[in-house]
Amino acid sequence: MYLHFAIEHVFGHHKNVCTPIDPATSKRGQSLYDFLPNTIVGQYYSAWNIENNRCLKKYKTQYTIRNVMYLYTLSYMILPILFLYNYGFCGMLFFLGSVYNGIIFLEVVNYLEHYGLSRKEISPGVYEQVNITHSWNAPHRLSNYLLFKLQRHSDHHENAYKPYQTLCTYEKSPQLPHGYTVCIFVAMYPKLWMKIMDQSLDSFAKHNKYVFNETVHKEILNFIFKVSIFITTMMMIGFL
Question: What's residue 9's pLDDT?
């Protein structure tokens, strides 16, 4: 139900990351709730453009069964019907709910990975080459084990064909204030997220490398403490 992501991510996002034309790059000051609908719709249309251009070059027409976007789009309509037919309305809802959760989680992570970062425009429409300063890293061991080193994102973009197990962390890359798990929850609160991340952006721009920020660290610890208290309280109420 999100098959076009494979086209857009490889041939769109990796090419246009951190530029205004990339729908998968979140801008400074853009909330998660503004980013999600824009990126989901934008990536779908971007995948169509990429695949249409491929077919025009190879087959001289975009209207061909070799244009996989027709198959992908058709599958988005057929699959829910198949689940409805075989497993009933509840089965279809469960399937669509699983799809929704997977897509949202994927795009929330996309939101974190390039927030506010940009590539210099060398000439109109031409940008500097992607390097290790165009993605946020999160060198937290547990998160990296769980997500196959996805947080070593700078190396992934600079060396796209590099196997995930060999991805590296670089000191000159911008660093998220915490692992993906915590940052995902922080991003749900736009004011707090922007307060923390805009400080991190300014610090990185000033020093041209990651520098530990005590204020940001305290904000994150305070957030973790409040969430922990809330969860503990809810659990106690549940037991009562």
Answer: 96
C-alpha span between 116 and 201 (Å, rounded): 7
Per the structure block, which two tokens stand in for 186?
């922080």
Neighbours of 185 (CB within 10 A): 16
Are 188 and 111 spatial neighbours (Cβ–Cβ below 8 Å)? no
C-alpha 180, offset from chain centre: 11
Task: Give the bridge partners for 123, in sequence order.
Answer: 126
Q: For 13-28, write each residue's pLDDT tens digit.
A: 999 999 999 999 999 9
CA distance 193 to 191: 5
| pLDDT computed for residue 51 by the predictor | 98
DSSP codes joined into one string, 95-119 = HHHHHHHHHHHHHHHHHHHTTT---
Residue listed under structure tokens 């692992």: 179
> Mean per-residue pLDDT for 26-39?
97
What is the reported pLDDT for 140? Answer: 73
CB neighbours (10 Å) of residue 148?
Answer: 11
Q: Is 206 left (phi over 0), alpha (psi -120 to 50) or beta?
A: alpha
